[in-house]
Amino acid sequence: MVASRAPVSHPPSFEVPLPLFPFALVIALSACAPKSPEPVQSPAVSAPGTHPQGIRVPPLDDRTYHYFELENGMKAMVVSDPDADMAAAALDVHVGQFSDPSDREGLAHFLEHMLFLGTDAFPDVDAYRNYVQSHGGRSNAATGQEHTRYHFEVDHAHLEGALDRFSAFFTSPRLDREYVTREREAVNSEYRLKIQTQTRRFREVRRATSNPAHGFAKFSVGNLTTLADRPDALVWDDLKTFYDRRYSADRMAVTVVGREPIHTLEGFVRDRFAAVTSVDAPSTEPAPPIYTQDQLGVRVHVAPLDEIRELYVEFLVPPQLTTYRSHALGLMTSLFGQEGPGSPHAVLTEKGWITSLTSGSDGAEDHTLLTIRMNLTEAGLEHVDDVAGVLLQFARLLNDPATLKPYWEQQRRLSGMRFDNAEQARSAAVARGTVRAMHLYPSSEVLSFWAEWSEYDPDQVAEHVARIRPDNMRMFVTAPNLPRMDQVEPRYNVAWGMHPLDPALVQHWNETPTDPVLALPPLNPFVPEDTSLLAGSDPEAVPIAVVDTPGLRVWHLQDTTFDVPRAAVSARVHLPGRAGTLEHQIRMVLWARLVDQHLASMLDQARTAGVQPVLQSQQDGMVLAAQGYSDKLDAILAAMVQGALEAPLDPVAFEIFRRDLLRRYRNTTTTRPIDQVGWAMSEAFNPRDWSYAAGAEYLESLRFEDLESWRADLFETVYIEVMAHGNLSAETATELGHHLQAHFASAAAATPVSVEIRRVPIGRALVRTVAVDHDDSAISVLYQGADTDLAVQARWLMLGTLMKTPAFTQLRTEQQLGYLVWARYDRRDLVPGLSLNIQSGVAHPGTLLERIDAFLQGFGPYLTDLSTEEYETIRTGLIATLEEAPTSLGQRTRDLAADLALGVTTFDRKAQIVSLLRDIEKADIEALFAEEVLGKSARRIVVQATGRSHAEHAAPAGACATPDCVVARMDAPFTRKR
Questions:
Q1: Which fold is adopted by the domain 48-273?
Q2: Rounded CA gap, 344 and 342, in Å?
Q3: Which residues are registered as beta bridge partners of 567?
Q4: How far apart are CA 654 and CA 640, in angstroms?
């Protein structure tokens, strides 16, 4: 599998085609070959367009782009989209963690936090956030290694007001000393939040084993120590100096997307950002190498908190900013990540040494790394040197650049298709995706840099291959109880040790002949050839049931309104006789993994060709789905179905997967407490949910013979529901449904089981405690609605929207109870509700509950004092969010699938809610809150976890420590038919 961390030669997030989408619990988009009616040529394959400035734009993107620079040196792009429901803006500062002073690690991140806390023009601490959220939008920021990005989206009519508040971050921030202590606590909470996260712990070891003179070696998050006031240096003084010297206009790039014409949007930018100061920034010397010579050709042992066995190797390759058009790195990651016969993945899996392999890239502007990460089995850990040796042997197959050219040509073709068929993304994604690119690429390539290809360069390919050798390798082994770990990373308390690779091992690798099983892959048979579109598509149409017979229902909507040769097909196979039990669900998970391994080569080829196949176990069955181009999808789907039913059960693979799943379930005890509280809350409501502890207990005793007997009569009764949407005909959808049903010809037709959600009793103190292995505590307080009526759902949705910002302001910004704090509308299936959630390192659950209750007591007066105008603004913003039109086929498919999952076969749930919201007055919300949150009709459940920092505090009397205790106290459930 290939998974890169923002490699510069890959598309940014807003260019990636159709993501997976939810269908009940899990589902995926898919496509299928069109058969009728007669196709017409699609504009999706037309030559890429350019704007007058030479900006290369995907052919399907009809927005107008304009690039310019302000006199202060700021780069700017404005995008006019007359149809945009949401406007957006993003600003990227070419300053990040690498720029932190060596004695103030985390300062760039701390500054990002402080900029949100008021400006001279809008001094209220939440003026910006309140404005954006009350007008249906959202905002955020992120500090990276070399860039810090701020962004928002808002209802299109309120772009100017949002820009007024946003731009003031960079012209007149208050950086109020009053909030330094409080926001320093927020940064520290963010640091504490991930102390036990394996990815963060591993990253810190990578930092500790890098060149201390390079920016990568710095601790990026910050904490109370690095941001402390010192006798000779107050952190506020250092913060102000950093802002004044580093936040210079010539280091900034801004993008604004709105409905207004280009000249108007340009005026918006010039009027607000021309005042940003451009300063003489500190001179930047060329960066030292990220690794010194004695940090290459090394083996690093890392101690995990959990039972993890992993091998991660990285090789320094040429920096990509100067070589991105060659796509040599992408060629390497693709070949190492493929899963067909002869691949490292296939060979190592066959040996029983790995359960996964992911190849990708990492790095920064001055360096690039080719990375390969593998999850090891117990046997793989024993043979870890041989695992690394297989990678080095495979690299020998890449030594002749001429043999690699056909793979490069295939990648270039697929890249061109992806660009030519790239759909218009949401305004926010466009803004976020372009601001960083303006710093790094020519303005003409801001949208297309990932799709720019030079001619095949064998020298560049050879240079990349030449770097895959032991003396340029860093080999990280993560597992419990490894020897030679003589160092401890202090901030995350990670034991590690780094030592040069054994010369005898290197000699062994160099002298071992290449395993004849290793081979380059065949060219991909699933690369699409026909990208035509079917004629006739109504943008107002909704799916209809083209098949509705015992055991099978097929929903279909032909939709080419987005001009892309893609479609979405998902088949949910319900197994009513097996639904709901823990035993069935775990066996289903293991069986799905065995099938996935059996189909690994075909599925990998499909993914490479722009199709995302999914075979996913479900609580009451499984989902078969695929997404991508609508050419050759019939072959992929047919192979998936046949493979799922005919895959052999391998006892060796079963045992590997059983142990791997058991390890993963056990490891959940050290995950974030707020996540564990959330799982327990879901378990309380859903009769088919169960705890990871229960799953681990069952896996202990599960044997291969159990899976064999279970599989023998798995499909005794079957009900299949298909959703087909996009560039495919009703005839094709019908044939697909019947083809699926034919594979289950011996099964009895069934109807899907009903959906149940447990009902919280009125007026009873229902509390569940969860044991966690973590320093922090967490709590979730949920109020459940009394009815599933859509009007009731709309009122709870409005209440959750009104509470979101005040809860964050009080519990997070003002009281600093933790980094993770939120209130939200919380619907379980069709049962509405409201939840308040906190993870805290400073307060135990009893205190957190007191603070939540105090906030709720104060929220009543807040509602009373809320003016009609303020209420209307928030309601209008919510409606604008719900009415935002999909900008891609994938977005529309997700909406349709969400309705179907809830049994709304009119496919207009959002429209119905909007209609109801228009009639909901403030008095209705006040009454709901008074009666069903504070009043005697409240249905409340509390789930809490006490961390090690608060272990001295006892659980409340009468609290449930087990799921069964909670279930016994619940009322009769809400029930609906599918």
A1: Cytochrome Bc1 Complex; Chain A, domain 1 (3.30.830)
A2: 7
A3: 628, 726
A4: 20
Residue 29 has pLDDT above 70, yes or no: no
Dist. CA 301–CA 307, nearest whole Å = 14
Ramachandran class of 128: left when φ > 0, alpha when ψ lies in -120 to 50, beta otherwise? alpha
Which amino acid is it at 251?
R
For residue 716, what pLDDT band results from cuts at 50, 70 and 90?
A: confident
Kindly report whether the global pTM for this prediction surpasses the value 0.85.
Answer: yes
DSSP secondary structure of 569-619:
EEEEEE-GGGTT-HHHHHHHHHHHHHHHHHTHHHHHHHHHTT---EEEEET
Q: Which fold has domain 533-753?
A: Cytochrome Bc1 Complex; Chain A, domain 1 (3.30.830)
- Per-residue 3-state assignment (H helix, E strand, C coil) for 618-678: ECCEEEEEEEEECCCHHHHHHHHHHHHHHCCCCHHHHHHHHHHHHHHHHHHHHCCHHHHHH
Instruction: For the chain, give the mean pLDDT.
Output: 92
At 95-132, the pLDDT tens digits run 999 999 999 999 999 999 999 999 999 999 999 999 99
First and final C-alpha spacing in the chain: 36
Q: Is the pLDDT of residue 619 over 90?
A: no
DSSP string, 476-513: EEE-TT-S---EEETTTTEEEEEEEPPHHHHHHHHHSP
Tokens 């906190």 belong to residue: 838
Q: What is the pLDDT of residues 560-616, one digit of tens each?
A: 999 999 998 999 999 887 777 899 999 999 999 999 999 999 999 999 999 999 988
Among residues 5, 663, 628, 612, which one has the least CA distance to residue 376?
Answer: 663
Q: Across the strands, what pairs with 368? A: 317, 363
What is the pLDDT at residue 49?
58
Domains 296-420+444-511 and 757-976 share a fold: yes
Distant-in-sequence, close-in-space partners of 116: CB < 8 Å, separation ≥ 6? 128, 129, 141, 169
Q: Which helix (H) or strand (E) holds 331?
A: helix 328-337
Rama region for 759: left / alpha / beta (φ>0; ψ in -120 to 50; rest): beta
d(CA 30, CA 608): 14
How far are the Cα atoms of 322, 324, 325, 441, 737 from residue 454, in angstroms, in the given order?
12, 9, 5, 15, 44
Can you name the CATH fold of 757-976? Cytochrome Bc1 Complex; Chain A, domain 1 (3.30.830)
When pLDDT is cut at 50, 70 and 90, the band that residue 13 belongs to is very low
Q: Distance between CA atoms of 227 and 105, rounded to whole angstroms?
A: 8
Distance between CA 297 and CA 733 in Å, rounded?
Answer: 55
Give the residue extent of every domain in the chain: 48-273, 296-420+444-511, 533-753, 757-976
Q: Is 407 helix (H, G, I), strand (E, B) or coil?
A: helix
Cβ 780 vs Cβ 943: under 8 Å: yes
Token pair 């109807």 in the structure block, residue: 751
* DSSP bridge pairs for 650: none
Instruction: Report the C-alpha gap between 372 and 359 in whole angstroms.
Output: 4
The token pair that represents 491 in the structure block: 């901030």
CATH of domain 296-420+444-511: 3.30.830.10
